[in-house]
Design a protein that fits this description.
With 445 residues, the chain is an alpha/beta fold. It has 2 domains: 155 residues, Rossmann fold; 286 residues, L-fucose Isomerase, Chain A, domain 2 (3-Layer(aba) Sandwich). Helix content is 37%, strand content 23%. The strands form 3 sheets. A 6-stranded antiparallel barrel has the order 10-11-16-15-14-17, surrounded by 4 helices. A 5-stranded parallel sheet has the order 2-1-3-4-5, with helices on both faces. It has a 4-stranded parallel sheet with strand order 7-6-8-9, sandwiched between helices. The longest helix has 21 residues. The model has no long low-confidence stretch (mean pLDDT 96).
Length: 445
């Protein structure tokens, strides 16, 4: 991430310049150890002309996000200039007042408030960070705000692929390329199962054999599966990997049944697990919005994403289960009783799925992005995984949701049109997702 820092001043000095200088020094100290590149414009920003020059320099330098800092209150008119010259989300950082003395020292929060309300009335997105530079909470808040500010434009320039169609009967996952582009800015690239099969059959046997060795190096136990069964799984992996690269895809949804196990004799879920471990956003059953959901999680830095059925629930738990494609990072350790093992599908006994329990005692966020009634909607709630009550084959997990009546929650979600897949990520991220939805103009449910 390349971040521009804009120190907004004004020609007439005001408030406590020494305190403002201390805040700038503290901000620079925090940014000096930040995990991103910092770009500083060449001249001080004190008026319309200098702000325009600074933003032009940020654009030329390939800045992904700008931080607007008012160590002492700047000129509120510059919010209008900012809105004209920087159409992407702005991160405003307000620093605190001097804790001693009887005089107002900075009015930094007031200045940020003026900018924020002006940008909002202009219909432009922004995020606000308020805190003392260098404090852990401030560092974390700035990191979140920058991920939010960069995630939206990256999503709006992204491309999602769909191989085949949605799975039979799963009409709730129908993709509309025009609504996807109009509402989220995402382009859809549709490929047929025949095109996928042609790619899959294009690899020489020695290339496939070399990839099988990479699978064996993962040291996953195998249940009723042999090394000979892994060749087709490797072809799946190579074809999906190359389609993602050749088509410049940021996410991919695949109609994984009935054609693939029915016509080719195997499931692609082991390949999905491997791609997920490489940071690819991938969804089963032709779930395009599910793939976009996983992409949003990746852009926000949440880590591994498990796309799950909402299999069952009671008043305080949700059974999160699917056919065997959960990322290894969310599962019990390899080698444990319910750790990942390459196996056959629970239903038709064809390889190659990855059976594993979602590990217990892990804070999780369950969320979903979907289209209904001409708009995109998002639901997100938090909980913690516990040991599943039933040893189900496939990807098997149980999430305790202590703050909500899950039966009431489910009733509200299905009446809002939520499809039957939900995304599961480690950590509590509902607040960040809700802030992203606000930036993206997505309705919260």
């Amino acid at each position: 991430m390349n971040v521009g820092i804009l120190v907004l001043g004004r020609k007439r000095l005001g408030f406590d310049p020494e305190w403002g200088a201390q805040m700038v020094a503290a901000v620079n100290a925090q940014l000096a150890v930040a995990p991103f590149t910092v770009f500083r414009p060449s001249a001080a920003i004190v008026d319309d002309a200098s702000l325009r020059v600074a933003l032009a320099e940020c654009t030329q330098a390939g800045v992904d996000a700008v931080i607007a800092l008012q160590p002492t209150m700047g000129d509120g008119n510059l919010a209008l200039t900012m809105g004209q010259c920087w159409r992407r989300p702005v991160v405003m950082w307000a620093t605190p007042e001097k804790p001693t003395g009887s005089m107002i020292s900075s009015c930094s929060l007031v200045g940020a408030h003026v900018f924020a309300s002006t940008l909002r009335q202009l219909g432009l997105p922004f995020e606000l960070v308020y805190g003392m530079p260098g404090e852990p909470t401030t560092v974390a808040e700035l990191d979140t705000a920058l991920h939010l500010a960069t995630a939206l434009p990256r999503l709006q320039s992204s491309k999602v692929g769909l191989i085949g169609y949605h799975a039979p009967g799963f009409v709730d996952m129908e993709a509309d390329p025009f609504e996807l582009r109009r509402l989220l800015g995402v382009s859809l690239r549709h490929l047929s199962i025949a095109e996928f099969r042609e790619q899959l059959e294009s690899y020489a046997d020695d290339e496939v054999a070399a990839d099988v060795q990479r699978v064996l190096a993962m040291e996953l136990p195998m249940e009723d599966v042999t090394v000979a069964d892994l060749a087709l799984s490797s072809r799946y992996y190579l074809a999906l990997r190359d389609i993602i690269a050749n088509e410049s895809l940021d996410a991919l949804a695949v109609r994984c049944w009935p054609e693939l196990p029915g016509q080719l004799g195997q499931w692609p879920y082991l390949a999905f697990v491997r791609l997920a471990a490489e940071g690819q956003s991938i969804a089963c059953e032709g779930d395009v919005d599910g793939a976009v959901s996983t992409l949003v999680a990746a852009l926000l830095g949440f880590g591994d994403v498990y796309l799950s059925d909402w299999l069952a629930h009671d008043h305080d738990t949700v059974t999160i289960w699917h056919g065997g494609a959960a990322p290894l990072g969310l599962c019990d350790p390899v080698g444990s009783e319910f750790g990942p093992r390459i196996a056959r599908h629970f239903n038709n006994h064809k390889p190659a799925v990855v059976n594993a329990n979602i590990r217990a005692d892990m804070p999780v966020t369950i969320f979903r992005l979907w289209r209904c009634d001409g708009e995109y909607r998002l639901a997100a709630f938090e909980g913690q995984t516990i040991v599943p009550r039933q040893p189900l084959l496939g990807s098997n997990g149980l999430a305790l949701i202590p703050e909500l009546d899950v039966m009431e929650l489910f009733d509200g979600l299905i009446h809002a049109g939520m499809p039957h897949h939900v995304a599961v990520v480690a950590g509590h991220h509902a607040r960040t997702l809700k802030r992203w939805a606000r930036l993206a103009g997505v309705r919260l449910i």
